[in-house]
Specification:
The complex is a heterodimer.
Chain A lengths: L4 H6 L1 H4 L5 H9 L2 E5 L5 H10 L4 E5 L24 H12 L4 E5 L5 H10 L2 E4 L4 H14 L3 E7 L2 E7 L9 H4 L11 H4 L3 H20 L8 E6 L4 E6 L11 H6 L1
Parallel strand pairs in A: 1-2, 1-4, 2-3, 4-5
Antiparallel strand pairs in A: 5-6, 6-7, 7-8
Chain B lengths: L9 H7 L4 E4 L2 H5 L8 E2 L3 E2 H11 L3 H5 L10 E5 L2 E2 L9 E2 L4 E6 L5
The chains are: A alpha/beta, B alpha+beta.
């Protein structure tokens, strides 16, 4: 994508970075990203990707803004209570950067609709709040060959990983977390969540997404980052590919 | 004066004499306070054997992390020396002397 003088100025602090430069920013500006969830993680992800000039952002969430969201979901204002989260967050992103296209999707994407949007984008960011959605998004990304930046956060703890199964012998989300559908889940509404935690993890998701788009640095592919905010400690785990994985393993690929 | 060269296998030899350590996320201490504020060391062996050894220190621990078939419960994650274990059923991966097992939950919140 060609950047005019206004855009060159707006993104100049990116362009000054030797690793990014005009070419990297042009790749960011020419890209499209789907963000699943416009809550604690989705807000910082969308605000950073929007401010950074990702050309087209799709924001999907079927929930409405609630008073209890406002302690941490920084893309929503008090006046947005009762409004769809995708709409509210889209407005906040546009206020920061009117130069990009922001498309709210007022539903929790699934089935054919999920596949259609994943097909249309360059990268997917999973900022959802449940395992069923996470596994559905992973299956779509594996089947359609799209990179997935996955983050999760609760209490004081967060997790972050990047999956791109087009790279041989790298894991998918299911290799790491076998299907937890039906298992009891700990939710922020029950367990609580420390406000800046979702900012930390969401900002790291945005960082990985932008690195992928700009083609800079080493991504967290085949690795899982664990962040313990209470102890201020991070761990990075290696994550092997599971050859027997029902989503990305050999048998699944042959069947697909 | 030439630098003294350590034998190539010195650190490996030290490692062989150290028992594996088991670490876990804070939230598990709420259920098993006897594991908190201590270094948990067990004999080298399979993941299954290591978890049973922790259960000797904190009865009920194995039931918390393993299901009725002896496999890791779905929300429980485990690594050996910072590599995630993907054999969650037989738990036959070996935890070596000097190794570190880390137990943590799968998170879904967002």
């Amino acid at each position: 994508m060609e950047l005019n003088d206004t855009l060159l100025l707006r993104y100049s602090r990116h362009i000054l970075l030797p690793d990014v430069g005009v070419d990297g920013q042009a790749r960011i500006s020419g890209a499209s990203v789907l963000i699943i969830g416009a809550g604690g993680l989705g807000c910082p992800v969308a605000l950073y990707l929007g401010a950074s000039g990702v050309g087209q952002l799709w924001l999907a969430d079927g929930d409405t803004v609630d008073l209890t969201n406002l302690q941490r979901q920084i893309g929503h204002a008090t006046a947005a209570i009762g409004e769809n989260k995708a709409d509210s967050l889209a407005r906040s992103v546009r206020a920061i950067n009117p130069e990009i296209e922001v498309q709210p999707i007022r539903e929790a994407l699934s089935g054919r609709a999920l596949h259609e949007v994943v097909t249309a984008v360059d990268l997917v960011v999973d900022a959802s709040d449940n395992f069923a959605t996470r596994h559905a998004v992973n299956r779509a990304c594996v089947q359609l060959g799209k990179p997935l930046v996955s983050g999760a956060a609760i209490g004081f703890s967060g997790q972050l990983a990047v999956f791109d199964t087009r790279r041989a012998y790298t894991p998918c989300y299911h290799c790491l977390f076998p299907d937890q559908t039906g298992e009891p889940e700990t939710r922020c509404a029950e367990a609580g969540v420390f406000s800046p935690l979702v900012g930390v993890i969401g900002a790291m998701q945005a960082m990985e997404a932008l690195k992928y788009l700009a083609q800079v640095g080493e991504l967290l592919i085949g690795r899982l980052l664990l962040w313990d905010g209470l102890q201020a400690e991070a761990r990075v785990m290696k994550v092997p590919h599971d050859p027997a994985c029902p989503v990305c393993g050999q048998a699944a690929r042959q069947a697909g | 004066m030439p630098r003294q060269q350590f034998p190539a296998d010195l650190f490996g030899a030290i490692r062989l004499n150290v028992m594996p350590t088991v670490q876990m996320t804070q939230h598990l201490y709420r259920f098993f306070p006897q594991l908190e504020n201590r270094t948990i060391t067990v004999s080298a062996g399979s993941v299954s054997e290591v978890l049973r050894a922790v259960n000797e220190i904190a009865p009920g621990f194995a039931d918390y992390v393993l299901d009725e078939h002896g496999a890791l419960r779905r929300h429980v994650m485990l690594s050996i020396d910072d590599t995630v274990v993907i054999d969650r059923k037989t738990l036959s991966d070996r935890v070596p002397d000097g190794g570190t097992v880390y137990i943590f939950p799968a998170l879904s919140g967002g």
